[in-house]
Amino acid sequence: MSKTLLIISGGQEAVDIAKAVRDSGHTVVVSDADPQAPAFAFADSCLIADVHGADETAAAAERYNRKIRKIDGVLCAADAALTAATVASRLRLPGQPLHVAELINDRLMTRRAFASAGVPTPWHMEISTPQALQRVMIARGCDLVVKPVENRGPLGVIRLTAAGDFARAFGEVRRHSPSERVMVEDGLDSARVTIAAMMRDRRCFAANEPAMAELIGRAASALGINDGPVVGEIATHQGMMYVTEISARLGSSALTADAARLALGE
Q: Where does 79-150 show beta strands of DSSP type E?
């Protein structure tokens, strides 16, 4: 039986997901603030709403649900866990609880949860001025990553590798934080590996090596993500793996069928 799924984000990352949902026979609704969003070309209906505007997107979804067609599930293709959870809560759909989404949305709260659960994560701290960033650089070296406290994926994230203009870096990161909060963490002199996975009953299923999947599963469980898609980022330093990011979004079109079933409560 055909159902209607709302996909939050019309970006390039959502194109294959929208195609997969349509190919499965479901009606696709895509929400994004950009009228030219690529995934709109594969949607049956489009909602113009900011991906990171939780209330704005939820209001648009409520109007569509009330006036046009019932929405049966929501999928998130962007780092916008709070938006997806708000829509799910308003429409009484399956999804991450609001308190879990709020935790995911705050990088400092996420890292505190990791620490409590024994999940390795890089050294980090909140900083409030460019001078504080300069002091960290003097104390710990220049291999640092500066991030907005709000988890919006790569938006506003800057990796420092030289002394450079720390004041400019701080200002740019703070500009991408709605609360103007900035944090800094060790770069660990390591590349990052991104892992798209699916949580089922607190178990993590991913195509990556088992040790990475197990670590992402522990990180997701620490935040209360028991079911649903997750995307994690891992850095390996001196033989030890660290979780540097995690988000409750669909990161691979190969997982769309499983994610859609969960979103529809099946």
A: 124-127, 144-148
- Work out the end-to-end distance of the chain between its first and last CA atoms, rounded to an integer number of angstroms: 12
**Domain 4-95 maps to which CATH number in 3.90.830.10, 3.20.20.70, 3.40.50.20, 3.90.550.10?**
3.40.50.20
Instruction: Answer for the pair 99, 29: CB distance below 8 angstroms, yes or no.
Output: no
Helix axes 81-91, 54-67, angle to 10 degrees: 40
CA distance 59 to 43: 19
Q: For 25, phi and psi rounded to 5 degrees? A: 95, 5
Cα angle: 27, vertex 33, 37; to 5 degrees? 60
Structure confidence by residue, pLDDT tens digits, 177-220: 999 999 999 999 888 899 999 999 999 998 778 999 999 999 99
- Token pair of 66 as six digits: 């009330």
At the top level of CATH, the class of 102-120+190-247 is alpha beta
- Cα–Cα nearest to 37, from 47, 27, 22: 47
pTM value surpassing 0.90: yes
Round to whole Å and give the CA distance between 225 and 248.
8
